[in-house]
Write a structure and sequence with these properties.
The complex is a heterodimer of chains A (about 375) and B (about 300). Chain A is an alpha+beta fold. Helices cover about 35% and strands about 25% of the residues of chain A. Chain A has 13 helices and 18 strands. In chain A, β7 and β8 form a beta hairpin. Chain B is about 40% helix and about 20% strand. Chain B is built from ten helices and 14 strands. In chain B, α1 links the parallel β1 and β2. Chain B is globular. The chains are: A alpha+beta (about 375), B alpha/beta (about 300). Chains A and B meet through β7, β8, α4, β10 and α9 of A and α4, α5 and α8 of B.
Chain lengths: ~375, ~300
Amino acid sequence: MDLLEYQGKQFFASYGIPVSQGEAVTTVEDAVAAADRIGYPVVVKAQVHVGGRGKAGGVKLASNTDEAREHATNILGLDIKGHIVQTIWIEAASDIAEEYYASFTLDRAAKKHLGMLSAEGGVEIEAVAEENPDAIAKIWIDPVDGLSEEAARAWVEAANLNPAANDGAVDILLKLYEAYTKGDADLCEINPLILKPTGEVHALDAKVTLDGNAEFRHEGWDVFDATQIRDEREQAAHDKGLQYVGLDGSVGVIANGAGLAMSTVDIVNQVGGSPANFLDIGGGANAEVMAGALEVINNDPNVKSIFINIFGGITKGDEVANGIVTALGRVQIDAPIVIRIDGTNAEQGRAILADHASEKLQSKPTMIEAAKAAVELAK
Amino acid sequence: MAIFVNENTKVLYQGLTGSQGKFYGLRNRDYGTQVVAGVNPKKAGTDVDGIPVYATVAEAKEATGATVSCVFIPAPGVQSAVLEAAEAGMELVVVITEGVPAQDEAYFFNKVRRDFPNTRILGPNCPGIISPGKANIGITAGEIAKPGGPVGIVSRSGTLTYQALYELKLQDIGVTTCVGIGGDPVPGTSFIDCLEAFEADPETKAVMLIGEIGGSAEEEAAEFIKHKMTKPVSAYIAGVTAPPGKKMGHAGAIVSGGKGTAAAKMDALRDAGVKVGNNPTEAGELMVEIVRGLGL
């Protein structure tokens, strides 16, 4: 779950990391009022789940009310790489002496947490990593030990920041590690982390991805969830607890397990078709879940046929079959369905489907045959 | 032979008294797995269809001689369940549960590796492990696998694992062991762990590897195959036509360093001499060719 910048800053602030004071607003009038309250100069920043805001004109400095109004007017509604700006963040402008980069994420290969710190912040850090990898100081942290102050200091010294920034950087990095681990983040990134002329170190930006699996132990994450950008189909699927990614084709895909769902999308492409979506109904999917999945697909006007690909482990074939029958009784499914079931209770599932077989519902024994049939029906 | 588990393996289930744990625990027993105990502190002294339930893993081990635990505990309790199993001296802890927080996985993986080096974790979020005809621990439908050999399977995806077993059975090819390592960020057992074990297992003559986009586990496996394996390998990577997934900020992109796409993984595997299929069926056909080529 990706946070918007202002949410990331609130998240950081709750762990004691210094961030700029500001307000999130959705109208020009509120933006001007906020800017007047905060005091000039202020920065007007587009809040979108995508990078490159500055280049797209989504970050502007305002030194008075008129400028605040002008920038807010221009930025609200701006299209940044397909993301329409609905919220802007107005914050007190900061004096910047130097710009650094700091982040924590999981290094899957090392199976440890990876901290990265660079004196060359504020720019595209990928370019730094590519052209001058030595400019990024890295530290691998065993989650059992955590990050000690001593280790943090050695890491900061290795990054060759302005020595005036060292104490402040150590303090922020220890807090950032706390936010990353205790806060159940997959990523915590500050770019830029700034040194002010007055010697303070400060998080000028915040990029945070939270681990949705940890929502059970954090209150208030539903606020972050509410601002996730999803298209209509994705929102409907999300409301039903389904893993869904919208695509542009005409064959609706339902499968159980991310691997099989990806493989189903692949195979539809390989036999000359074009998938309308990726939809994983997950392990343990029952009749209710299957009915919900069919409803979501049915609401996509581009769908001309539906390919249901189930291999039973936790998901049982008879429950899937019952789900389809239930869904067909509940909503008018427009597109013809091709289904392939194997694995746990597959025979019972096939028997249930055989009782309801029609032009609109056919069963095929293999993945490829089912894909071909579904693609043919979509033409 | 088989790797990691066989007909003599005694298994206890943490979560046997829950609905999923009971369903699959009993299924595993019906398959022939030695399901010897369940663990639930609130239901100690009772039984599940004749399988005794103990308060702790240590007590269950003491009473039954179990060496493997299968975890069906809900996600919030997985970390303490895994650590309890490791402390009790389980040799293998198979974690079926999905939705475990990544911070927990990173913590208990490193804790177990350091303090309980004799314990292997498999999963979380995996279908388990089956040595067909000998033991089935987890949620795989045992009837889709043909016992014997000569093929070993290791897979990151649950349902694609079943697909692989099934494709081989249709061709009348047996499997020594099929390991589902799971698709989570910190899998307890890696591709390489399994490849190493298959390479050492005399009954396994060839290995099928099933991966997916994301991370660099397949690239690491390719390195291992290139330099350390003598046995032939076929592979399939899911997600060839998947749209680019959400990039995890700059940090994620730097860690992956351009790795992680299906194309990069397939190239790395081909470069290591692996026969790579474009779909599960094709990978199965390639394995059939390999097996027939070995004269088996």
